[in-house]
Specification:
- The chain has helices spanning about 15-25, 30-45, 50-75, 80, 100-120, 125-145, 150-160, 160-170, 175-200, 200-205, 210-215, 220-235, 250-270, 275-300, 300-320.
- With about 325 residues, it is an all-alpha fold.
- It folds into 2 domains: about 15-165, Orthogonal Bundle (Tetracycline Repressor, domain 2); about 175-300, UbiA prenyltransferase (Four Helix Bundle (Hemerythrin (Met), subunit A)), CATH 1.20.120.
- Helix 3 packs antiparallel against helix 8 (about 160-170) and helix 6 (about 125-145) runs antiparallel to helix 7 (about 150-160).
- The longest helix has 26 residues, at about 275-300.
- Residues about 1-10 have low confidence and may be disordered.
- One of its GO terms (molecular function) is protoheme IX farnesyltransferase activity.
- It is an enzyme of class 2 (transferase).
- InterPro entries: Protohaem_IX_farnesylTrfase, UbiA_prenyltransferase, UbiA_prenylTrfase_CS, UbiA_sf.
- It is a multi-pass membrane protein.
Length: about 325
């Protein structure tokens, strides 16, 4: 572990830095991606006619639940975060936030998330949000991360729960489209995270975290990335057929985005030690999920339904 000379204790200089430190604990860039998946599920469940109040409450609650889970993750991993170059400047290992204060912060957000969803949505969505925290903290962070190369595969279920929350908030149940969205994120997580793990393999090796690139090497990792990426196109199109909750616009998004993802994964498989290519795959994986969710929203808009119905009527008229 780093001593205080190589990793000196720092303190927040003012209230702005205090706020920045607590925001950093929540890992806001990860939260943003989770909110996109929640929003996509909300719109899909509401057929594009979403109650703005419910949307804001669900997204706010999702932010708090994810922030709580990420904060506890930072708290639990503070020993290895102090060693890894990428993470040693985080608020807890750097001394800007104490472990006690981080735990209070995380607990407060978890309770707030549950109460908001329970009060303004329903009990099912509130319980699902808490399940996401439990799965990320206990199953992934505590049980899998330091003990199995399948950590991110099984642990990816935690990041796939927000669409279930969004669907349940609107409908009060978990429909098949929500489960398909869950499966899509579950399949997307390994190629997304393994590409990152390839880039920082030495960091993970230094703290004995058995990420796949550390244990099996880059070549086998790229093959696994390719395998999971190939499943994304058929999985994403299940929302079109047989479920029928998405239409032609979304189909175009899914096929084009999935095709580009497969292409990039194939390129990485040809040069498994090229970290620049690994970074490209990692960045594109984020673009893939964000834009796919945008495609869901666009396809769900009432105006889009009207336009597609008009196009179909014209096409039928021409055929007749």
């Amino acid at each position: 572990m780093q001593d205080t000379l190589s990793n000196p204790i720092r303190h927040n200089r003012d209230w702005l830095q205090v706020i920045q430190s607590y925001v950093q604990l929540t890992k806001p860039r990860i939260i943003l991606l989770l909110l996109f998946t929640t929003a996509g599920s909300l719109w899909m469940a509401a057929n594009g006619q979403l109650d703005p109040k419910l949307a804001i409450i669900t997204l706010l609650s999702g932010t708090m639940a994810a922030g709580s889970a990420n904060t506890i993750n930072c708290l639990y991993d503070r020993d290895i975060d102090q060693i890894m170059e990428r993470t040693r400047s985080r608020p807890i290992p750097s001394g800007r936030v104490s472990p006690r204060d981080a735990l209070i912060f995380a607990t407060t957000m978890a309770i707030g998330s549950f109460m908001l969803l329970f009060t303004f949505a329903n009990l099912l969505s509130a319980c699902l949000a808490m399940l996401g925290i439990f799965f990320y903290v206990v199953v992934y962070t505590h049980w899998l991360k330091r003990h199995s190369t399948q950590n991110i595969v099984i642990g990816g279920a935690a990041g796939a729960i927000p669409p279930l929350v969004g669907w349940a908030a609107v409908t009060g149940e978990i429909g098949w489209p929500a489960w398909v969205f869950f499966a899509l994120i579950f399949l997307w997580t390994p190629p997304h995270f393994w590409a990152l793990a390839m880039m920082i393999r030495d960091d993970y090796a230094s703290v004995n975290v058995p990420m796949l690139p550390v244990i099996e090497g880059n070549e086998k990792t790229t093959k696994q990335i390719m395998l999971y990426t190939l499943t994304l196109i058929p999985a994403s199109l299940l929302l079109v057929y047989p479920l029928g909750v998405m239409g032609a616009i979304y189909s175009i998004f899914a096929v084009v985005l999935g095709g580009l993802f497969v292409k990039k994964s194939w390129q990485l498989m040809q040069v498994p030690d090229d970290l620049v290519m690994a970074r490209s795959v990692f960045k594109y994986s984020i673009v893939y999920m964000l834009v796919l969710c945008v495609g869901m929203v666009i396809d769900s808009l009432p105006a889009m339904h009207s336009m597609m119905a008009y196009v179909q009527s014209v096409a039928l008229g021409v055929l007749v």
